[in-house]
Structure formats: C-alpha cells, structure tokens
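Teaching assistant's notes for section 4

Start the section by putting this record on the projector. Ask students to predict, before seeing the second block, whether Catechol 2,3-dioxygenase-like lactoylglutathione lyase family enzyme will look compact or extended. Collect guesses on the board.
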Amino acid sequence: MKTTHKKSNKKVQTSAAAMLNLLILFSASEKTAAQTSAGIVGIDHVGINVPDLNKAIPFFSDVLGFTPVTQLGPIPLDADWKKLNHIDPNTGAVTIKMINAGNGASIEVFEYAENKGSKTHPNTDDIGASHIAFYVKDINASVQYLKNKGVKILGEPFTMPSGDTAGETWVYFETPWGSKMELVSYPNGKGYEKNKPAKILWSPKDTFKSYDDKQNSKTLSESEIRSLVELHLTIWNEKEAAKRDGLMKKAYADNIEMVDSHFTAVGHKEINGFVEGLQKKSVNSKFTHIKAVDVNHNTARLYWQHGTAEKPDAVTGMDLFVFENGKVSRLYVFVDSKK
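Reveal the predicted structure now:
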C-alpha cells in the first residue's frame, strides 16, 4: 500500500568549494550545493528496461507528451561487463534512449536485443520493484485522458485524508508493456507543510513553472532586484521580530536557504532567529552598503559593512542572492576575514 511508504529527504549541505565557485563565477543560479559528502546534487535520470523501443517510445512521446532526445547503440556488451552487471551471457546488444520528461529527471529507456533475462515484471512487493510518479495539475482530467488513450488505470484516484501526505491525490496506471507508473497531484500542498518544516520536499509544481505560467509571469528587472536587496538590508536592521517577519514574506521565498561558512538556515523562522541573535550581540550596530548592488540576470551581490556609527566597518562582507519566482530563494553570506 502506498500509505506504508514514507518519503524522506536530506537537508542540503553546501560545501565551501561550491560557495567559492559561486563567488568567482557569479552564476549561483546554475550551481547547486552538494546534498551529501558524495557530492550529489540531485537526480539526473531514472532508467527502465522495455521489451521494444519501437512500442515504448511512441507511448512516452504520443501519449505522455515527452520528447526523446538522445540515442546510443546498439552497443555490444562483452562478457566481463555482463558478468559484472548480472546480465545473461547470451543477451545481445543494448540500445538506449534518453527522454526529456518535462520539469524533473529524465527517463533512460533500455532495450536489450535477444534478451535472455526475465520477461516477468516484478510484483509490487518484490525487492527491486519500482515505479515512476508524474505530477499533474488536474489528476481527474489526466486520468480521463489516459483512459481515452486506452491506458489501463489501476483503480481510481485516492486523496490522502490525514498525515504527512494529507491532500495528496494519486493513482497508478500501467504502460502497454506492463510497467507500473503513477499520477500524483497536491495543488494545495501536503499535510506536513502546515507544520512549517525546515525542509520542503522538492516538487515540479514549486520549482519550475509551466510554459503557460512562464508566458504570464513577470521577470524581475534590475531595479526590482535592487529594491529587494534594499529590503533585505532593512530586514537585517529591523529590531522588531514581527515587522521583520512581515518584510521577509515580501522579499524571501518560504523555503529560502541562507548559507554561511559555518551553518545553513532554512526558512523565515531560522533566519529570523539568527538576525535576532546577531542584534542582541551588537545592539547599536547596523548594516550599510559599501558600494552599489551588482545585478546579473537573476542573481545579485551586495557588499556590506556592519558596525556602529563610530566604526561602521567593524565587519565587512558580501551577500550573494539568487532570485526565483520574484523572491530571494538562496542567500550566500561571505564574511571577510578580520585584519
């Protein structure tokens, strides 16, 4: 049952090397911090085997609307490779197509010629059984569309009534070759989000906009970005927590990540707490500009100083901003070494 599986995520940990690249190249929007010490930044693709590419690819492209992009093969496989990867020694060459599946990981589709492996799909409770889930805006409309295309729907859409996934609606369907896949939708978010967790699960609906949304969205101008940076300074100088929180909602994304050389703060609550602690340590200090804000597309950098009226540059540094959907989504803080 789907309800027995809990999806989890790891808090993003940003390496010093990644931050250095961001500073030097000033292209933070194209860089992501490593999630683990292995240097993993995200899922690039998922791979599945199919019995016949000539039947599978039209399903992905004509039914699901995906776009095949690259192809490799047929590639003959030597005996050592087959042994290492547990492939029957009599199986033939492999052909691979990589498919763009919209906003998210790509799908890598394999076909083995003269395949001597098992022709039976794993049962749902078998070790190694898996499925791919696709986010949709209107799950009922998507189900009806698939039914009209002759796709087998496994039951009816079910909405989770409670728990961490409350508000999520899902249903499984079957491909023409028997693989199980899923449609999922939660336009109003999931139950766990109401508790304002430090980390929100990634979702295509939040990270990327659809083509239509992009057409109707407004790209921030340089003046608008500079205004948000000025608001950022106001936030860090505001003494009242309630006012500071209200300003954060205007300038910062809900799941903003602030990365310092010593820690990572996620969300308004954590950043608010850090600012409050800083102000208690430096009651009469404030942040001011060192020079004008630099803007480069959806990124900006602010050189600042922090101190009292008598010594305004007691501490100096630079903030690097990444803007998404009209707000600051990531903030990288660089504090200069003391002289």
